[in-house]
Design a protein that fits this description.
Largest sheet: 12 strands, mixed
Number of helices: 14
Distance between the termini: 24 Å
Number of strands: 17
Helix content: 25-40%
Shape: globular
Structural class: alpha/beta
Length: about 425
C-alpha cells in the first residue's frame, strides 16, 4: 500500500459501469437514487439442480452497437462486459481521440470468475467428445487475461496493465500512479455470471431462498419479503456488473483540463482470518483493522468521515461484522452508512468499483443513497449510524470511506475526498 509520505495526489477523472439497472454512471446513479432494483427471478437453467433464484443480470449486449469498428471474430461476452464498462469510463474521462501517450495509460482489471464460459465449452468438448475434438483455438479463449488483450488492443493502451483475480484493482492502480509508473490507470472490475455459479451457490446452501410463490409477484418486492422473513440467513444474492474508475495524477489531469470527480486519499487492504469457502464470512476485528489503517494512512480521524459505502450485500453481513466494526470505531461519532448491493446484488469482481462509482456521485450530488431496505434491518450497533432506506438529499459529504470484500480473501477500505486545489 502507498504511504502518505508520497506527495503525488491521485484523482478520479472518469466513471463507468454496466449493471442490471443501467449502462453508464449517470443512468446507474439515477436508478440507485430512486430505489430501482435490478432483481429478476430466474427459472430457466442450462443444468438441473434448482427451481428458481433471485438474480441481478446485465442486459444482453449487441457489441457492434457500441464498437462499430470492431471486426469479427468478436470477443466472448466475458470480454464484452469489460470492454463496454471500460468504454463508458473512457468516454466519461474524455480519453477518446486524445493526443495522450498510450505508453502512459494503463489498464488494471479484476475478476473473480474469469473466462468460465470458454472453460465450460472447452472442458465439455474435452470430456464428452475426447481430446481430438478439443480445439486449441478454444483453449486460448480459456485464459483469464484474454480480456486484457481484447480491451488494450482496441484502445491501444500500452502502459502498465495487469489482470487481478479476486482483489481490488484500484489499490494497484493507485500504487502505480504514486510510483510514477503511469499518468492514467483505468481500474475495472467485472464478472460474467453463469448458471454454474448460481447452481454451485445453491448446492452449497449459500443462495438466498426463492420460494415458489415468489414467482407470482414482482421480483424486487418478493426479495424484500424474503429478507424480512430471513434476515439472519447467512446467504447472498448474486448480481452481474462491469464497473470502472479512471485514476489520474492530479498534475496530469489539470494539464489536460480533465473534470475531477474526487480525490483518492489512500487505502488499506488486508486478509481476513475468517475467510473460508464462503467468502462472505468475515471477522469484525480484521474488518476494523483495515478501516483503522485506511484512516491512518489517509491522515484522518473517524470524525472526518461523513459516510461509509459498505461491502454488505444483505443485512446479516452488516449485523454480523461490518456494522460491529463500524460501531467500535465510530462509537462517539455520527455518520451515514449505505450499500448499493441490495439493489444490484453481490457483483464479485465489480463490487468495489460499483460502490466507488456510487460514492463519487453521492459526493458530487450531496446525497446519501438509500439501501432500498428498511433501516431497522441494519441493527448491529448502538452507535449513531444512520442507514437510510431512501435517498437523502442536501447532505454535504467531504470524505467517504468505501469498503469492499473480495474472493481472494481480502477486505479493502478506500477513502475518497471532495477535491479541492490546496
Amino acid at each position: 500500500m502507498a504511504t502518505i509520505a508520497q506527495n503525488e495526489r491521485i484523482v478520479i477523472t472518469g466513471l463507468g459501469i454496466v449493471s442490471s439497472i443501467g449502462i453508464g454512471a449517470e443512468k446507474y446513479y439515477q436508478s440507485l437514487r430512486s430505489g430501482q432494483s435490478g432483481a429478476i427471478i430466474k427459472n430457466t437453467w442450462s443444468e438441473e439442480g434448482i427451481d428458481q433464484a433471485y438474480l441481478f443480470p446485465c442486459p444482453e449486449i449487441n457489441i457492434k452497437a457500441y464498437f462499430e469498428d470492431l471486426k469479427a471474430p468478436f470477443p466472448l461476452r466475458y470480454s464484452q462486459l469489460a470492454m463496454l464498462g471500460c468504454q463508458t469510463a473512457v468516454k466519461s474521462a474524455k480519453l477518446e481521440g486524445n493526443q495522450l501517450s498510450p505508453d502512459r495509460i494503463g489498464l488494471i482489471l479484476n475478476t473473480s470468475m474469469a473466462a468460465n464460459a470458454a472453460v465450460e465449452t472447452y472442458l465439455s468438448k474435452l470430456f464428452q467428445e475426447g481430446p481430438l475434438k478439443a480445439s486449441p483455438f478454444d483453449f486460448t479463449k480459456t485464459v483469464s487475461n484474454t480480456v486484457l488483450g481484447d480491451t488494450t488492443r482496441y484502445y491501444k493502451f500500452r502502459g502498465s496493465s495487469s489482470l487481478l483475480m479476486g482483489e481490488d484493482s484500484v489499490c494497484y492502480g493507485f500504487d502505480l500512479l504514486k510510483n510514477k509508473d503511469a499518468d492514467i490507470i483505468i481500474c475495472g472490475g467485472f464478472d460474467e455470471i453463469r448458471d454454474v455459479h448460481i447452481l454451485s451457490y445453491a448446492h452449497n446452501g449459500y443462495l438466498l431462498d426463492c420460494p415458489p410463490e415468489a414467482g407470482t409477484t414482482d421480483a424486487a418486492e418478493a426479495l424484500k419479503a424474503a429478507l424480512a422473513q430471513a434476515q439472519e440467513q447467512r446467504k447472498t444474492v448474486i448480481g452481474e456488473a462491469a464497473a470502472f474508475v479512471v485514476l489520474e495524477k492530479l498534475d496530469h489531469a489539470l494539464e489536460r483540463g480533465a473534470e475531477i470527480f474526487a480525490e483518492v486519499l489512500n487505502y488499506n487492504t488486508g486478509f481476513d482470518g475468517a475467510h473460508d469457502n464462503f467468502f462472505f464470512e468475515k471477522n469484525e476485528h480484521d474488518f476494523r483493522y483495515v478501516m483503522e489503517e485506511s484512516l491512518e494512512l489517509s491522515g484522518l480521524a473517524p470524525k472526518d468521515i461523513d459516510c461509509i459505502v459498505g461491502a454488505s450485500a444483505l443485512p446479516w453481513q452488516y449485523n454480523e461484522y461490518e456494522g460491529k466494526a463500524i460501531g467500535d470505531i465510530w462509537e462517539n461519532e455520527e455518520l451515514y452508512y449505505t450499500t448499493v448491493k441490495p439493489l444490484i446484488g453481490e457483483t464479485f469482481g465489480a463490487s468495489g468499483q460499483s460502490s466507488l462509482v456510487a460514492a463519487v456521485l453521492m459526493m458530487q450530488n450531496e446525497e446519501v443513497l438509500g439501501t432500498g431496505l428498511p433501516s431497522e434491518y441494519f441493527n448491529a450497533t448502538k452507535a449513531r449510524v444512520k442507514v437510510p432506506g431512501k435517498t437523502l438529499e442536501h447532505v454535504p459529504l467531504k470524505n467517504i470511506m468505501v469498503n469492499s470484500i473480495h474472493a481472494g480473501g481480502n477486505t479493502t477500505s478506500i477513502i475518497l475526498s471532495h477535491y479541492h486545489k490546496n
